[in-house]
Specification:
mainly beta
Length: 62
């Protein structure tokens, strides 16, 4: 298993995208394994291209 990598991605807090460092294993991969930086229930924007800090976003639940 590869050591964790830190990515700065966008998390969503109260409908607002916020840049947050997140540690992951085996990125890129078919499944994202987050080891640090998120709490249970947090939402991560996986494709954050074009998303800026403070931007209002809508979370869609499949």
């Amino acid at each position: 298993m590869n050591p964790p990598r830190v990515l700065c991605n966008r998390a969503v807090t109260d409908g607002i995208a916020i840049r947050r460092p997140v540690s992951v294993i085996d990125w890129p991969a078919a499944r994202l394994i987050v080891t640090d930086g998120l709490e249970p229930g947090d939402v991560l924007v996986l494709d954050a291209a074009g998303v800026t800090d403070g931007q209002a976003v809508r979370v869609l639940v499949p």
